[in-house]
């Protein structure tokens, strides 16, 4: 089974574009949608996206050569080797196409958003629902205005549910994403310090995220973090279930036990009783992904055993608390992204381990005028955490270092303005048997540090 029928003629109609090519091919159905010509395959639609460094229009004929049956373009392709639909904006057309194609499916769709833990929660929800349904989930974290419609256009006839991650950085973006996704269930993980340069403060973050509810049906469900003060008091206008550690939550975790670097166990308490689960992930904070997964699973008719097995099948996505035993150290590769909430959770988890514990932390970006203070606050938290060594790298990371020093706590601590300076002394800083956390915002490229750590022996 493949895509629901989507002809080239329909693509032109839905996008408001002009079909240019052999009229005989108008009735041909596409087999998929790609934006990278290297991923093109027989019968697919190639979307020519104009980026800062690469213009997809230059690769249209390569896509045709790889089997594409049609292109979506915002400029005339004079030497096109196949038919194409000419539109004013390929990005706008892609979103219109994603919205239309989503409307062809009458299946439960879960939208996942929040300031922290979106991808982890998305993976756990999908793992649980997969025990009962054939589930489409967002690949990796393709959660923006290009990734979301591409995810929706990946729906196939056989899919019985979808879990779509929705990420934003400014006002209006979530409204546009929700218009495409039309989620039946919305999971909101937390409201935290992120994208403050655009959103201003935590109330601005909440306003921007809550745009998701504008395109939900009256019988929809909001699943929100009840430990988050803003979300606990927020009225989404539809049924709301809360999760967290507090006693007032509809789904709460008790008896949380980190089991080294490999697992965490807990009991999930809800109106249905108490369910013991084990999550193959590092850190007590991982229960905050398991709780909404259980809540959504229960809402969609899954039993205890399905939820338990689903959580056991969870696997972390690259760069998110991945545990690597290098033979010399235990590397906690959590370098994909960072904000104050996730940094704090990772440091606290590191502190639960045995032996010498080292945190290599970098800049947290897009924190606006509060950036320096939030980095300092993280340094204060590190000082109280009980870990053994702090290594800071980056311009803003200097304030993490200063925050620690200001507490007067005696701890081995270093600051390096650039990664290259850190690389030069890394072999002398890190000792055999250490547990080393690596975490920073994605733009810091701390995966380079993770790779250097893997080379130590």
Quick recap:
The protein has 457 residues and is of the alpha/beta class.
The total strand number stands at 20
**How far apart are the termini?**
50 Å
How much of the sequence lies in strands comes to 15-25%
Strand order in the largest sheet:
7-8-6-9-10-11-12-13-14
What shape does the CA trace take? Answer: globular
Integer average pLDDT:
95
- CATH topology label of the largest domain: UDP-N-acetylmuramoyl-L-alanine:D-glutamate ligase
CATH homology superfamily of the largest domain: Mur-like, catalytic domain
Largest sheet: 9 strands, mixed
Oligomer: single chain
Structural domain count: 3
Radius of gyration equals 24 Å
| Poorly predicted ranges | none
Share of helix, binned? 25-40%
Structural class: alpha/beta
The CATH first-level class of the largest domain comes to Alpha Beta
Q: What's the number of helices?
A: 16
**CATH 2nd-level architecture of the largest domain:** 3-Layer(aba) Sandwich
Explained architecture:
The chain is of the alpha/beta class and 457 residues long. The chain has three domains: 8-88, Udp-n-acetylmuramoylalanyl-d-glutamate--2,6- Diaminopimelate Ligase, Chain: A, domain 1, CATH 3.40.1390; 105-312, Mur-like, catalytic domain (UDP-N-acetylmuramoyl-L-alanine:D-glutamate ligase), CATH 3.40.1190; 322-454, Mur ligase, C-terminal domain (Protein-Tyrosine Phosphatase, Chain A). Helices cover 33% and strands 21% of the residues. It has helices at 8-15, 60-65, 90-102, 118-129, 147-152, 173-181, 196-199, 202-209, 229-233, 287-299, 304-312, 340-351, 371-385, 397-407, 419-429, 447-454, and strands at 18-20, 33-34, 45-47, 70-73, 84-86, 109-113, 135-137, 161-165, 185-188, 221-225, 239-244, 251-259, 263-270, 273-279, 322-325, 330-333, 357-362, 389-393, 412-416, 435-439. A nine-stranded mixed beta sheet has the order 7-8-6-9-10-11-12-13-14. A six-stranded mixed beta sheet has the order 15-16-20-17-18-19, with helices on both faces. Helix 4 crosses helix 11 (304-312) and helix 13 packs across helix 14 (397-407). The chain is globular, with a radius of gyration of 24 Å. The model has no long low-confidence stretch (mean pLDDT 95). Residues 112-296 form the Mur ligase central domain. Belongs to the MurCDEF family. MurF subfamily. One of its GO terms (cellular component) is cytoplasm. It catalyses: D-alanyl-D-alanine + UDP-N-acetyl-alpha-D-muramoyl-L-alanyl-gamma-D-glutamyl-meso-2,6-diaminopimelate + ATP = UDP-N-acetyl-alpha-D-muramoyl-L-alanyl-gamma-D-glutamyl-meso-2,6-diaminopimeloyl-D-alanyl-D-alanine + ADP + phosphate + H(+). Keywords: ATP-binding, Cell cycle, Cell division, Cell shape, Cell wall biogenesis/degradation, Cytoplasm, Ligase, Nucleotide-binding, Peptidoglycan synthesis.
């Amino acid at each position: 089974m493949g895509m629901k029928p989507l002809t080239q003629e329909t693509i032109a109609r839905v996008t408001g574009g002009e079909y240019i090519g052999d009229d005989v091919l108008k009735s041909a159905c596409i087999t998929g949608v790609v934006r990278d010509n290297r991923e093109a395959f027989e019968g697919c639609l190639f979307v020519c996206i104009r980026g800062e460094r690469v213009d997809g229009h230059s690769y249209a004929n390569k896509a045709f050569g790889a089997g594409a049956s049609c292109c979506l373009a915002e400029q005339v392709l004079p030497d096109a080797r196949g038919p194409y639909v000419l539109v004013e904006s390929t990005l706008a057309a892609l979103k219109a196409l994603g919205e239309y194609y989503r409307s062809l499916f009458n299946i439960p769709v879960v939208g996942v958003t929040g300031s922290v833990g979106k991808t982890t929660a998305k993976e756990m929800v999908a793992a649980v629902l997969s025990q009962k349904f054939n589930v489409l989930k967002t690949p990796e974290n393709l959660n923006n205005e290009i990734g979301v419609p591409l995810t929706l256009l990946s729906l196939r006839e056989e899919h019985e549910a979808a879990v779509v991650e929705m990420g934003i950085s400014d006002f209006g973006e979530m409204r546009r994403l929700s218009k495409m996704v039309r989620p039946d269930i919305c999971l909101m993980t937390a409201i935290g310090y992120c994208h403050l340069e655009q959103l201003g403060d935590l109330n601005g973050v909440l306003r921007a995220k809550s745009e998701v509810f504008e395109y939900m049906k009256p019988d929809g469900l909001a699943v929100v973090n009840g430990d988050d003060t803003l979300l606990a008091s927020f009225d989404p206008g539809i049924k709301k279930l809360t999760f967290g550690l507090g006693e007032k939550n509809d789904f709460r975790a008790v008896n949380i036990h980190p089991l080294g670097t490999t697992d965490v166990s807990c009991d999930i308490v809800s109106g249905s009783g108490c369910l013991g689960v084990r999550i193959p992930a590092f850190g007590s904070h991982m229960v905050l992904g398991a709780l909404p997964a259980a809540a959504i699973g229960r809402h969609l008719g899954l039993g205890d055993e399905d939820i338990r097995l689903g959580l056991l099948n969870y696997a972390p996505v690259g760069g998110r608390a991945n545990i690597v035993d290098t033979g010399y150290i235990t590397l906690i590769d959590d370098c994909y992204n960072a904000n104050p909430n996730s940094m704090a959770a990772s440091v606290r988890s590191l502190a639960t381990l045995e032996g010498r514990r080292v945190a290599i932390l970098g800049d947290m970006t897009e924190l606006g005028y509060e950036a320096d203070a939030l980095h300092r606050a993280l340094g204060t938290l590190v000082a109280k955490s009980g870990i053994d060594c702090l290594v800071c790298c980056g311009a803003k990371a200097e304030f993490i270092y200063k925050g620690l020093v200001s507490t007067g706590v005696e701890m081995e601590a270093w600051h390096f303005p650039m990664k290259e300076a850190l690389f030069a002394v890394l072999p002398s800083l890190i000792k055999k048997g250490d547990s080393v956390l690596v975490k920073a915002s994605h733009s810091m490229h701390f995966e380079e540090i993770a790779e250097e750590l893997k080379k130590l022996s």
